[in-house]
Amino acid sequence: LKKVFGTRNDREVKRIQVVVAQINLLEDSISQLSDDQLLARTGEFKVKLKEGSSLDDILPEAFAVVREVGVRTLKMRHFDVQLVGGIVLHEGKIAEMKTGEGKTLAATLPVYLNSLTGKGSHVVTVNDYLAKRDSQWMGTIYEFLGLTVGRIYHDMPEEERKAAYNCDVTYGTNNEFGFDYLRDNMKFSFEQFVQRELNFAIVDEVDSILIDEARTPLIISGPAEESTLKYHEACKIIPKLRKEKDFQVDEKAKTAALNDDGVETVENILGIENLYDPQNIETLHCIQQALKAHALFKNEVDYVVNNGEVVIIDEFTGRMMPGRRYSDGLHQALEAKENV
């Protein structure tokens, strides 16, 4: 049956090739337009949308315009495979493209098209370097066509962050978009929100961001109430415990737990009868987090000590993540371990 009818993917590509042919037919006429006439097309597209046309109606012409601007500004022409990728992304589907097929350039097509609504488009990258590079590199195309381009990054002033979100195209990492969404939902009025109503987003390296990194939840934690002194005391106990004899470590599950011998050793060191007594619950928590900090977390691997602070290292990109903290007292335990 597959030989007769083809796979679903083959049928989808065949359907899209019809649109690609329409875009290619417009190439000659679009290439004869002046720079000002190309810029004017953005306004014309916006008027058509207000008059009731859909994004799909103006797609061929819009894509042809972006292709021509790419040639003029970056000396890069969108090939048919990139047009196919752009249409797939516009339809909200996943486009798999091989290295070197030009994912970055392909994304400019649906981003431009969806930004014409005036509701903004987000381009989600895996790290700050790519967000900065692409916003400057591909931003040339958008700005040529009269769109505004913004970028969000860590430690950005609130007003600048809001202005970046109000741009037609906004670049940033998945963590920045995620945390801004969480922070907005903790605010007291809509006027304080930095993000607008969410409209359209393209996610680069979607398998990494939505599968691999999705295992790490985005958590906003408040200031710890426990005294850091207790963690310092707990960290003095851990070196006296022996692996396997007093505690077990599961590297894969990232857990470390005291066994019966370990509990007895800790009780003897602290001079208490029962570590699991309700009145010792806070001490037990500090011991458990200190054990985790010593047994599972390695300096220069999971975190670094920078300017007297413990800074988490992103396990996927290897980059430092200033401002991020582990929850449940683990960060204080790491600070106590490193004496900072």
Automatic annotation (TrEMBL):
Keyword Cell membrane assigned: yes
Entry GO MF terms: ATP binding
Keyword Nucleotide-binding applies: yes
Source organism of this protein record: marine metagenome
Gene3D superfamilies according to UniProt: P-loop containing nucleotide triphosphate hydrolases, SecA, preprotein cross-linking domain
Stated name of the protein: Uncharacterized protein
InterPro entries linked to this entry: Helicase_ATP-bd (IPR014001), P-loop_NTPase (IPR027417), SecA (IPR000185), SecA_DEAD (IPR011115), SecA_motor_DEAD (IPR014018), SecA_preprotein_X-link_dom (IPR011130), SecA_X-link_sf (IPR036670)
Pfam families the UniProt entry points to: SecA_DEAD
Domain Helicase ATP-binding: start-end pairs: 84-242
GO cellular component terms, semicolon-separated: cell envelope Sec protein transport complex; cytosol; plasma membrane
Domain SecA family profile: start-end pairs: 1-340
Keywords: ATP-binding, Cell membrane, Cytoplasm, Membrane, Nucleotide-binding, Protein transport, Translocase, Translocation, Transport
GO biological process: intracellular protein transport; protein import; protein targeting; protein transport by the Sec complex
Coiled coil: none
SUPFAM superfamilies: P-loop containing nucleoside triphosphate hydrolases, Pre-protein crosslinking domain of SecA
